[in-house]
Specification:
about 100 residues, single chain, Elongation Factor Tu (Ef-tu), domain 3, globular, alpha+beta
Length: about 100
């Protein structure tokens, strides 16, 4: 049976205007450190981390993106619509990362 790293936190929805504009939640430093410990085992390339995410009663699969010593949780439009969240909202999120160990 595969084990998993489970973390939960609250974060503000932010917007990144880079080449691919998107909405994100930034993983707090202490949780990013826990993810870093397993990152090499679970990343499927470029440092992204496959994850199951829950916001409220909405669950979705995504990949955490490494950024400035932490990770960003991408929030697709369909996710933001289903959860009724927008830029600047404070959101409680749960993340599960299968370690396979």
């Amino acid at each position: 049976m595969a084990k998993e790293l489970a973390i939960s936190f609250s974060a503000e929805v932010i917007y990144w205007r880079g080449p691919s504009p998107f909405f994100f939640l930034r993983v707090p430093e202490r949780d990013a450190l826990a993810i870093n410990k397993i990152a090499k085992q679970v990343s499927y390339g470029w440092g992204v981390i496959p994850s199951d995410v829950t916001i409220g009663s909405n669950e979705f699969y995504t990949a955490l993106i490494p950024k400035d010593g932490s990770y960003l949780v991408p929030l697709k439009k369909v996710v933001r619509a289903a959860t009724k969240i927008d830029l600047g909202d404070k959101v409680k999120v749960e993340i599960r990362i299968s370690t396979g160990l």
